[in-house]
């Protein structure tokens, strides 16, 4: 089969993604085999290349949509052959080179995948995996955030027009949050359409002060702003969020939770930082940043339960995919046009999807 493999380019130890022929992956217990119909590109697919975080020989890609063609043993949920499914897995896995989605056939942890709602195409569904699973980790880690109605609160979602941003906004609204978010002006209507209540231009030098003023005004009815999801997770976004999360009184700071996609230094002393790296949801031992992390059965069970909830919300239309830019060209298109466009900053307010 054809697949996108990580290789050393031979130039200054730089990594590159190349389309190669690989054997079909072996079916493992708890997994199913999928014929891939579409794949989506995530920032992480570029990050592992540009920061040399991948291992040559490993398989690229996190997101996919396709059809189940073979079921492994020990699958708890009631999947069947022919089911249209979408989801994600870890890509460029140093411990398991068959984990990844940029291939004609893949194996994925079955109980964490989602059945595609009727009426939704493979192209739209391909964008759902990483954003749903990562949002699920954030929701499950913070006991105050769930999809049952609760007392109204407020949340800051930095990077609201990203695929992660629109997914977090939707689940936050389902949990009765008032959403403050940032966006480029041309994407402001997009984030509002997903439920954002207050949208501020993140290019404006006054944006942090504007959001802080909104949060203080909201505090009369919603309580102080103590929750932030940073969907960009760079040094500049951390500094931005730090200004907005400035405590409104001396007792508030220790209650602030800052959720990030990568391990970042907390932007203010005393703020709890929650990295939303979702690898532990596989319920298997994994390597991350040179460390071996033991398997967590508890994390896997929580993720499995969340997948059931997320699948139902998708079927009911309460959660919808991020806008997608559907391309032809398959895996060659991913390598030759998709990753370069993402690297050059040409992707905004949409997710690139390639049809196989």
UniProtKB/TrEMBL annotation:
SUPFAM superfamilies: GroES-like, NAD(P)-binding Rossmann-fold domains
Molecular function GO terms recorded: oxidoreductase activity, acting on NAD(P)H
Stored Pfam families: ADH_N (PF08240)
Domain Enoyl reductase (ER): 10-353
Top-level taxonomic group: Eukaryota
Record's keyword terms, sorted: Oxidoreductase
Family: Belongs to the zinc-containing alcohol dehydrogenase family.
Annotated protein name in UniProt: Enoyl reductase (ER) domain-containing protein
Species of the source: Exophiala aquamarina CBS 119918
Source taxonomy: Eukaryota, Fungi, Dikarya, Ascomycota, Pezizomycotina
